[in-house]
Design goal:
single chain, 3-stranded antiparallel β-sheet, about 220 residues, alpha+beta
Length: about 220
């Protein structure tokens, strides 16, 4: 498990005079930062120290073969731009999802921008959509029969050689270990001479992407 931490300081005056509980606000920000890092490691981790040595789903797929077309679990879309992706590209991805992985937990994982500018665009262009449906929108995102989970660690800007969306049941190919949940501690002694309070957040976790298939299955 990798240990991550945050150490933040606030003056005693700010703590005493602030209308809001600054300590709780900092604790919320620390928890949010930890959650963001978990997502970044799980989806965008490239095995470097930036991600604590964790290799995420996208890199694990691309590491299988430098010739992308040889990767069985990866389909190379039409063109290099998001605007060039067509519905048939996503049909191919669904077709590559193994039957054993087509569970009730299977879902798409994509950046919010990718969902709205590509997936939703293709859904609306397919026809049969009423004006009321367009006006009211849809809060429970779905695409081709599968729920869409918004993962901001997925690409939000188009680029060559990127895994822009993932379809699958993550419980079958990844493991998340949480050895110490977010733990917050406050000390009046660390910065005693400057009359500051120190707030420390610690967490220990690891993510292992153990199975994304290979170059033939």
């Amino acid at each position: 498990a990798k240990k991550i931490g945050v150490l933040a300081y606030l003056s005693s005056e700010l703590n005493e005079d602030s209308y809001i509980d600054v300590g709780n606000e900092l604790a919320d920000e620390i928890a949010w930062a930890f959650a963001k890092l978990e997502d970044d490691c799980g989806f965008a981790g490239d095995g470097t120290s930036t991600y604590g040595g964790i290799t995420g789903v996208r890199a694990a797929l691309l590491n299988l073969n430098t010739t992308r077309a040889n990767i069985a679990g990866l389909f190379v879309g039409s063109g290099n731009l998001w605007s060039e992706l067509v519905l048939a590209d996503f049909n191919q991805v669904v077709g590559r999802l193994p039957q054993y992985a087509d569970t009730s937990r299977a879902a798409w994982f994509a950046h919010k921008r990718f969902y709205h500018t590509v997936m939703e665009r293709l859904s609306l262009a397919a026809g049969g959509v009423t004006a009321a449906e367009i006006a009211s929108g849809q809060r429970e995102f779905r695409f081709m029969g599968y729920p869409v989970k918004i993962a901001q660690a997925m690409p939000g800007v188009e680029a060559n050689d990127q895994v822009c969306a993932v379809l699958g049941d993550l419980t079958l190919g990844t493991r998340f270990g949480d050895r110490r949940m977010t733990t917050i501690a406050l000390s009046e002694h660390t910065a005693f001479t400057s009359d500051q309070l120190a707030i420390r957040g610690i967490e220990r976790f690891d993510i292992v992407v153990h199975d994304v298939g290979n170059a033939s299955a």
